[in-house]
Design goal:
This protein is an alpha/beta fold and 578 residues long. The chain is built from 20 helices and 26 strands. The chain has an eight-stranded parallel beta sheet. A hairpin with an 8-residue loop joins strand 25 and strand 26. About 4% of the residues have low confidence.
Length: 578
C-alpha cells in the first residue's frame, strides 16, 4: 500500500485536468466546523442513556474525551449484555436508535447539531475550487449543508445541485447539465426522510447508488474524514475497484500518525494493487489540506487568507541549548489501596435521615437512597441496629460509580464516618467538619493552648478514592473553652504563616505516620475497609526542549471609526485616542 505526504498529493492535484477527481467527505471533515463526528455522537448517546438510567445529570460527564469518563460509561453497558462491542461499526446505529427510538426525535437531534453552523476554512477553500471549475462533484455521508454553505459564501448566486433520496425526484437528475453536484449518500436532515438507522445505512437506494457509481467510475476519488465503517458506501467502492473502476485512482486521506480502519486498509491495499495512482495521503487536517489545494491553484480570496492567518499566528523560535530538564512535584494526596465497592441494601420503615442517624451504631453507617437503606459495616451490627425497623431481606450490591462521583456523595460521606469512628478511638479529638487534633501535642502560646491538627478531604478521581491531608492547628483557652472566631483565626494564621513547603511537607509525613498503624493507613468498620497508601502522589518528568512558540500579543482597538488607533498596551492606546 502506497503512502504519500500531503505536498506530493497537492502537486499531483494541481496538474490533473479540471473535474477529473471528486471528493467523498465523512464526518471528520466537519469537525472543525464544530459538528461532532460519528464517534463523538456515539459517546453522547451512551452518556444520555447512562445518565437517564441512573437518574443523574449529564453535566457530571461534561468532557467525553476523558479516558476515565469513557471507561465508567462503557463498563455500565458491558455489564448489561446485548450491546455492541466497543468501537464496533454497529455502535452508531444501535445507540442512536436505543437513545431515540422515534425517527422524528433522531431528526431533531441531527437538526440541532447542524443548525446555524458556519463553514470552516476547508469548506470555503472547497467552495473556491467548485466555483472556479476545478471540481464539480462532492459526495458526502454527512447530514450538514457545509458544502453548499462554502460555495454560497464565495458566490451567493452560484448554482449547485443536491442529489439525495430525501429530495423529491432528485434521483432523476442527470449529473452533467452544466452544474456542480452534491450527492448526499445518507439523506438530508432538512427533509422528512432522514436516513440514520442501521437498516437504512446498510443499503443505498438503487438510484442513488447508480448515480454515484457512474459519476466516480471513470475519474479519481479523494476521500477525507471518512472512516469506512458503513457497508452501503464501502460496498460500492469495493465493487468498483474489483471492476477496475475509479480509473484515476483513490486518494484516501488520513490524519498524520493515525491508522485506517481494518476495512478501509484492506480496500486501499487492493486499490493500490490495481491502480498505481492510488495512495494513502497523510495530512494534518481537512482545513490544512484544502487551503494547500486552494494555494496550489493560485486562487485568491481575502476572507480565506485572513482566516488562515488567524489559524497561523504562532511564530516558531528555536533555542539551541536549553538542554534536558527534570521536574517533580509532591502532593498531599494519598491514593486508596482498597475501598468498599459493595453495600448492604434493604428496605425498612425509616423515611427520614434524622431517624436513620438516631439508630446507627458503632458497628455500621448508613444512608437513604431511592427509598432504601444502604449500609456499610458489620452485618450483625446492621441487624441489631435495625431490629425493630421492619427490614426486608438484606442484599449485598455493587456501589454504582456515579454515586461516588456526585459532588456531595452520600457514599463518600459514609467513608468519612468510617474514618472518624477509627480516629476518635485513638487519642484524637474532632473539631469542625472532618477536622481532628492531637491532645498530646498541646503547647502554650500567649496564654492559649495550641494543638497540631489535620483536615481530611476525600475525593473520587479516576475511579479511585483519594485522601488529602491538610495540616493545621487548633486553639483553645487555658480552661479548655472556645475562643471567639476572630481571635481563633488570628492565632491560626500566625502559626501557619511561618510554615513553608519544607515544613508543611514534614508535617504531612508526621500525620501520615500518626494516622497509620503497623505502617498501614487503614480504617475498618466490620467488613468495610478503607486503606490508603502511605506514599503520596507524585508527579515527575524529564525531557528536552528544542523549540517553543511565541504568539503575537492581542491588539486592542480604541476608536471604532479610526482603524489606526490600535495598541497592545492599554495606557498607550488611551493616550493615542486623545
Amino acid at each position: 500500500m502506497k503512502v504519500i505526504d500531503a505536498n506530493t498529493f497537492v502537486n499531483s492535484f494541481k496538474i490533473k485536468p479540471d473535474k477529473s477527481v471528486s471528493f467523498l467527505l465523512g464526518a471528520g471533515a466537519s469537525v472543525s466546523s464544530n459538528i461532532p463526528s460519528g464517534g463523538q455522537m456515539v459517546w453522547d448517546f451512551k452518556r444520555t442513556l447512562y445518565c437517564t438510567d441512573n437518574n443523574i445529570r449529564t453535566s457530571l460527564y461534561g468532557d467525553l474525551s476523558k479516558e476515565n469518563v469513557q471507561k465508567e460509561i462503557q463498563s455500565y453497558f458491558d455489564g448489561r449484555g446485548g450491546y455492541p462491542e466497543l468501537w464496533s461499526p454497529e455502535e452508531y446505529s444501535f445507540y442512536f436508535e436505543k437513545c431515540y427510538p422515534s425517527r422524528s426525535d433522531r431528526e431533531y437531534y441531527i437538526r440541532n447539531k447542524v443548525r446555524d453552523i458556519k463553514p470552516s476554512l476547508g469548506y470555503l477553500c472547497m467552495g473556491e475550487l467548485i466555483v472556479n471549475g476545478k471540481i464539480d462533484l462532492v459526495s458526502t455521508t454527512n447530514f450538514d449543508d457545509l458544502v453548499q454553505a462554502g460555495v454560497h459564501s464565495i458566490n451567493p448566486g452560484f448554482s449547485i445541485k443536491t442529489i439525495s433520496s430525501a429530495v423529491n425526484n432528485s434521483v432523476g437528475f442527470a449529473l452533467n447539465e452544466g452544474f456542480p453536484n452534491i450527492i448526499k449518500l445518507h439523506g438530508d436532515y432538512l427533509f422528512d426522510k432522514l436516513k440514520n438507522t442501521e437498516s437504512e445505512l446498510q443499503k443505498l437506494e438503487d438510484k442513488i447508488a447508480g448515480i454515484w457509481k457512474t459519476s466516480i467510475k471513470q475519474n479519481g476519488l479523494i476521500v477525507i474524514g471518512y472512516a469506512g465503517n458503513d457497508n452501503s458506501v464501502m460496498s460500492v467502492l469495493e465493487g468498483l475497484i474489483n471492476e477496475d473502476g475509479i480509473k484515476k485512482g483513490v486518494y484516501w486521506c488520513k490524519p498524520r500518525g493515525s491508522n485506517l480502519s481494518i476495512r478501509a486498509c484492506k480496500f486501499m491495499e487492493n486499490a493500490c494493487n490495481v491502480n498505481e495512482q492510488s495512495a494513502v495521503v497523510e495530512i494534518d487536517g481537512f482545513d490544512d489540506l484544502m487551503y494547500s489545494l486552494y494555494l496550489a491553484m493560485n486562487l485568491e480570496n481575502s476572507n480565506i487568507d485572513e482566516l488562515w492567518k488567524g489559524n497561523d499566528k504562532k511564530q516558531e523560535i528555536l533555542y539551541d541549548a536549553i538542554g534536558r530538564h527534570t521536574a517533580s512535584a509532591i502532593t498531599n494526596a494519598l491514593p486508596a489501596i482498597q475501598f468498599p465497592r459493595k453495600c448492604y441494601v434493604f428496605s425498612s420503615n425509616i423515611t427520614t435521615w434524622k431517624e436513620l442517624r438516631s439508630i446507627t451504631n458503632k458497628s455500621c453507617v448508613a444512608i437513604l437512597h431511592k427509598g432504601k437503606v444502604w449500609a456499610l459495616g458489620s452485618k450483625n451490627g446492621i441487624l441489631e441496629a435495625f431490629a425493630d425497623k421492619n427490614i426486608s431481606y438484606i442484599e449485598e450490591m455493587d456501589i454504582p460509580i456515579y454515586m461516588m462521583k456526585l459532588e456531595h456523595s452520600d457514599v463518600i460521606g459514609m467513608f468519612y464516618e468510617i474514618i472518624e469512628n477509627n480516629l476518635l478511638s485513638k487519642v484524637l479529638s474532632s473539631f469542625g467538619k472532618n477536622k481532628y487534633f492531637d491532645r498530646n501535642s498541646r503547647r502554650l502560646r500567649n496564654g492559649y493552648f495550641v494543638y497540631d491538627a489535620i483536615k481530611i478531604a476525600l475525593s473520587f478521581v479516576k475511579d479511585n478514592v483519594v485522601m488529602n491531608l491538610l495540616p493545621t492547628v487548633h486553639v483553645l483557652k487555658s480552661d479548655g473553652s472556645q475562643l471567639d472566631r476572630f481571635a481563633y483565626q488570628n492565632i491560626v494564621n500566625n502559626e501557619m504563616s511561618t510554615l513553608y513547603n519544607k515544613q508543611m511537607n514534614e508535617k504531612v509525613e508526621i500525620w501520615v505516620q500518626k494516622l497509620s498503624k503497623n505502617r498501614k493507613l487503614i480504617f475498618e468498620l466490620g467488613n468495610a475497609i478503607l486503606e490508603f497508601s502511605t506514599q503520596r502522589i507524585r508527579f515527575a518528568g524529564t525531557g528536552s526542549i528544542d523549540k517553543c512558540y511565541q504568539a503575537k500579543e492581542t491588539e486592542l482597538a480604541f476608536d471604532y471609526e479610526n482603524d489606526s488607533c490600535i495598541a497592545v498596551n492599554q495606557l498607550k492606546g488611551l493616550i493615542m485616542d486623545h
